[in-house]
Design a protein that fits this description.
By secondary structure, the protein is of the alpha/beta class. The chain has a single domain (4-132), classed as DsrEFH-like (Hypothetical Protein Ychn, Chain: A), CATH 3.40.1260.10. It has helices at residues 18-31, 81-86, 117-125; strands spanning 4-9, 35-40, 77-80, 98-101, 107-110, 112-115, 129-132. A hairpin with a 5-residue loop joins strand 4 (98-101) and strand 5 (107-110). It is globular, with a radius of gyration of 14 Å. The two termini are 25 Å apart.
């Protein structure tokens, strides 16, 4: 059985290279058919917000790349509910990320799973490898 890899995203999307590096590593792992999931906690939830504009900071906006995750069969994206609430955000503030379920005639399904802190702890406990960015 394949090992389960979870990528923990805890940093804001810009100002450091962690968010971009995490996304690149996730895409590489998924391309090699790893069982990949992502968790967004703390300021990491900002990585998934809609309408990011990086014009003022001179960095490339890589947030549209998250929409490609479903094409790589990355469909387990956990967002910690408390982290959203602490930042005045809701699920509606995040990009709509989906994947197509070939077992259900390619039905489009949501990739984001809103979970509580305790639910996320249970998911993390079930992983084989955890990488924090």
């Amino acid at each position: 059985m394949a090992k389960k890899f979870m990528y923990m995203n805890t940093k804001a999307p810009y100002g450091t290279i962690y968010a971009l590096e995490s996304l690149e590593v996730v895409l590489i792992g998924a391309a090699f058919e790893q069982d990949v999931s992502l968790a967004f906690i703390g300021d990491g939830v900002y990585q998934l917000t809609k309408g990011q504009n990086t014009d003022g900071i001179g960095m490339k906006n890589f947030s549209p790349t998250y929409t490609a995750l479903g094409d790589y069969d990355v469909n387990k994206i956990y967002v910690e509910k408390e982290s959203l609430e602490e930042r005045g955000l809701s699920l509606d503030d995040l990009q709509h990320l989906t994947w197509e379920d070939e077992d259900e005639d390619w039905a489009e399904k949501d990739s984001i799973r809103l979970v509580s802190r305790s639910e996320l702890a249970d998911v993390i406990e079930d992983q084989d490898v955890i990488l924090s960015f």
